[in-house]
Structure formats: structure tokens, C-alpha cells
Write a structure and sequence with these properties.
The complex is a heterodimer of chains A (137) and B (306). With 137 residues, chain A is mainly α. Chain A has two domains: 95 residues, no CATH class; 35 residues. Chain A has six helices and no strands. Chain A is elongated and about 85 Å long. In chain A, 21% of the residues are buried. By secondary structure, chain B is of the alpha+beta class. In chain B, strands 1, 4, 5, 6, 7, 8 and 9 form a seven-stranded antiparallel sheet that branches. A two-stranded antiparallel ribbon of chain B has the order 2-3. Chain B is elongated, with a radius of gyration of 23 Å. The N and C termini of chain B lie far apart (59 Å). Classes of the chains: A mainly alpha (137), B alpha+beta (306).
Chain lengths: 137, 306
């Protein structure tokens, strides 16, 4: 058994090295082109952030933040550190708000702000509600 | 927190009221329109997906048969076709699968000559019977919609019933386009997503065509121009790829990725000095992809020292 192992191990290592040399390209072309999907994701992320910024600038939204005990300026700073995915998720919800300022919109804004607050506090580790948010602690 | 999400969706749903009547058509749209020449493929058992796609693809100028699409579209274990499979199959045939997802979009597309593949639930919510059909016409005066459906060449549905069955799929619908075509109501994200799908399906020439079409409508789109450059590159047309990226940096002087990709092309064409200049510019612009830009620069520099 030992004899077999003693011969097989160096043999397998040499085999692995030889195989690597065969398959490794002599002239290695690394994939350094930025793919279209990556561009689209990043454009989408930037547009979502802009959307979110406009939302936070609204008077009724700022009031809702204050009502939940969060300083809107602080909220803005925390939101800037959200990942693209998280921002896109929130921006999508903002898109679904009806216009017109009715009662339903008012309620929806409050709920959405509550959601954002939870996302922010999850970020600091104060809460741990959403699995998709990794605490920065 | 699930509660919050649930509440939000519930209230947002209430805010949009159920339509029992056809929505009023936008100005300029005819009160009724029917695409009578759309071919009909009768479905085999469960295979409404392949049949619907065959009809729409044939209409787009590419003769297709239901049987040929079955292996690409139909999932035997589910006795049906997944929406993503239909989209993927369209792409493999070099066609754009452009998604629409609201009621109002249907009529302008029909009026423009595009039949719409829709997913509807012909059963009830607790016992759904999902079905793909192709909408080929509407009539506002009679409040009716005309479809190619199942084994019926021309099925007429009262609008209320149609709306109810279609609402259950959240008004999911797709139109099949040649990459030189735009839908009647072109939406940038949806269109670019459809063209990206062609690129990912390795239909690079079709993707080139699609991105060019996108640029006629959205000439400032960074993603479309980068997509154009990348697609040309993917099938080896370095000259047109280079031109596309040069246009990109001209129009978007702070797009690091454009400089990066241009650098790569210049390197492959043997123009190392200029490649290095572009790569350095990308690195200096920074951003989340800076590590990749550095990699490109390193590779160019190592080539120059050989």
C-alpha cells in the first residue's frame, strides 16, 4: 500500500503539472473586455440611485423619515452606501407609487419609508431582518 | 417585514382599478384592427407554447413550425412551456423577444402590425389552466379581442373575460421582432434587455443589428453603444468594434469601460502605444471596475516589453 502511494503521489503531481502545461495557453488572453451586461447593470444602478435621490428630496418623504425618528440627511448618507441591487429594489418600489397625492399614496409612502428605514438599520447591524443585507459591523 | 411588503403590494394593487371595459385608445389608433394574415398552427396537446411562438416567428419573416420548436420550448415534466423558454427560443432564432407588461400596450402593438403572445389563465386562481395564445386583433366598438388559440383559428373573447384571464399573469406578453424593428411603444430598458438576450445567445450579428436599431432611437445610450462594440468584437470584426468604442468615448468621455475595451482592441490590432494611452485613461477614471482596467494596462505593458 505504502509503496503504491509513494510512487503514485509524485507521479500524479507530475501528471497534473504536465496537464496544466498542455492546457494552459502559451499566449494567455485574459478576458479583460467589460461585458455589455455589466454596463447595463451599472447604468441601471446609477439611474436607480438618481431615482432614489429624487424620492428623498420630496417633502412628504422627509416628513415620513422624521416621523420614524431618522434624520433624512443621515438616511441619505446611509443609502449612498447601499449596493446596486438594493438600490434597484427600492427604486422599483418607488416606481410603483401612484401619482396624485391621494390617501393611498400617502400610506404607501409611509410603508416604503418604513421599509427603507429597516434596510438602513439592517445595514448598521441594529436589526437583522433582511437576508439580502449584509451588516457592515 | 414580509408584512410590510405584503401591505405595500396590496395597497399598490388597490390603486389600479380592474378594467372591465377596454381602455380608451390613444389618439391616432384605429378603433379596430386585425392582423388577418397571421398564420395559424393548431396546438398539439399541451403544446400551446411552441404553437404560439411558431405563429409569431413566422409572422416576423422566419418560417417556423410548431414541431421544430417543441424541443426548445416545451418542458414535458411540466406539461407546458416556461416563459423563459419561449424567450430563449426566440433569441436562438435571432429574434428579439420584447416584453410588454401592461394592458394598454397591447393595442398600439397590434395596430402597428405585431401580434402579441400572451399568457392567460383560463381556469380559476385556485386551479389555474395556463395557456399561451396569440392576440391578432381588437375591436373597441364590440369590446372584443381576437386570438389564435389552441385549435381555434379565430377565437373571439369579450374584453372583460380576456382582461380577467390575462390579468392573472400580470399581463405578461411578448412581441417577436426582427432586430431592425422597434415596437410601437419602445421602452429603452426593455429593448436593450431584449438585444442583450441576443448577445448572450451568441447571435452576435443579430445583436449588432439590434444595438444599431436601439441607437437610432436612443443615440445617447451608453449601454447600446458598448453592446455594439462588444458584439462586433465577439464575431471578430475588430475594425467596426474599434469604431464603435471610439464613438462611445467621444459621446461619453467619462466611461472608463469604453476606454478599457478600446484599449483591448487596439492591443489586438498591434497598436500598443495608443492602447496603453487608452488603458491609462480608464484606470485614471477609476470606478468599481478599476481592477479590470489595471489588468488591461498590465497586459498591454507586458506586450510592449516583449
Amino acid at each position: 500500500m505504502n509503496v503504491i502511494r509513494k510512487t503514485l503521489k509524485p507521479m500524479s503531481i507530475s501528471l497534473a503539472v504536465i496537464m496544466f502545461l498542455i492546457v494552459a495557453p502559451v499566449h494567455s488572453v485574459l478576458a479583460v473586455m467589460i461585458g455589455t451586461e455589466a454596463i447595463m447593470d451599472s447604468v441601471r444602478g446609477q439611474e436607480a440611485r438618481e431615482h432614489l435621490r429624487q424620492f428623498l428630496a420630496r417633502q412628504d418623504v422627509q416628513k415620513a423619515f422624521i416621523a420614524q425618528g431618522i434624520d433624512p440627511v443621515e438616511a441619505r448618507a446611509r443609502i449612498d452606501s447601499l449596493s446596486d441591487d438594493e438600490v434597484i429594489r427600492i427604486a422599483d418600489q418607488i416606481d410603483r407609487l401612484p401619482a396624485g397625492g391621494g390617501v393611498i399614496e400617502f400610506l404607501l409612502v409611509i410603508i416604503l419609508v418604513a421599509f427603507i428605514v429597516l434596510v438602513i438599520t439592517d445595514l448598521t447591524g441594529a436589526t437583522d431582518v433582511f437576508p439580502f443585507i449584509k451588516s457592515q459591523r | 417585514m414580509l408584512l410590510l411588503g405584503f401591505l405595500f403590494n396590496l395597497l399598490a394593487g388597490c390603486a389600479t382599478f380592474r378594467q372591465m371595459e377596454m381602455p380608451s385608445l390613444p389618439e391616432g389608433l384605429p378603433a379596430s384592427h386585425e392582423l388577418t394574415e397571421v398564420p395559424f398552427f393548431s396546438q398539439e396537446k399541451y403544446q400551446c407554447g411552441p404553437a404560439a411562438l411558431a405563429m409569431a416567428i413566422s409572422w416576423s419573416g422566419l418560417p417556423a413550425r410548431s414541431e421544430d420548436l417543441v424541443p426548445e420550448v416545451y418542458t414535458p415534466s411540466r406539461k407546458g412551456s416556461l416563459q423563459v423558454a419561449i424567450i430563449a427560443a426566440a433569441r436562438r432564432h435571432g429574434r428579439l423577444a420584447y416584453e410588454i407588461s401592461d394592458l394598454e400596450s397591447l393595442f398600439p402593438e397590434i395596430a402597428a402590425g405585431y401580434p402579441v403572445i400572451i399568457l392567460q389563465n383560463l381556469g380559476v386562481s385556485w386551479f389555474p389552466v395556463w395557456h399561451y395564445a396569440v392576440v391578432v386583433g381588437y375591436d373597441a366598438a364590440r369590446q372584443e379581442v381576437m386570438l389564435r388559440s389552441g385549435t381555434t383559428f379565430r377565437k373571439i373573447m369579450p374584453f372583460g373575460v380576456f382582461e380577467k384571464t390575462w390579468a392573472r399573469s400580470n399581463y405578461w406578453g411578448i412581441i417577436i421582432l426582427q432586430p431592425t424593428q422597434l415596437p410601437a411603444l419602445p421602452e429603452e430598458k426593455a429593448y436593450l434587455s431584449a438585444v442583450l438576450g441576443l448577445e448572450k445567445a451568441h447571435r452576435f450579428e443579430a445583436a449588432v443589428s439590434g444595438y444599431r436599431t436601439a441607437l437610432t432611437r436612443w443615440p445617447q445610450s451608453l449601454a447600446a453603444r458598448m453592446g455594439l462594440g462588444n458584439s462586433y468584437y465577439a464575431f471578430g470584426d475588430l475594425e467596426n468594434s474599434e469604431y464603435a468604442f471610439r464613438e462611445t468615448i467621444r459621446l461619453h468621455p467619462r466611461a472608463g469601460s469604453a476606454y478599457n475595451n478600446l484599449a483591448q482592441i487596439l492591443m489586438e490590432r498591434g497598436r500598443y502605444a495608443e492602447a496603453r494611452e487608452m488603458a491609462r485613461k480608464a484606470v485614471s477614471l477609476g470606478g468599481p471596475l478599476q481592477a479590470v482596467y489595471r489588468q488591461t494596462l498590465k497586459e498591454i505593458e507586458s506586450k510592449m516589453s516583449q
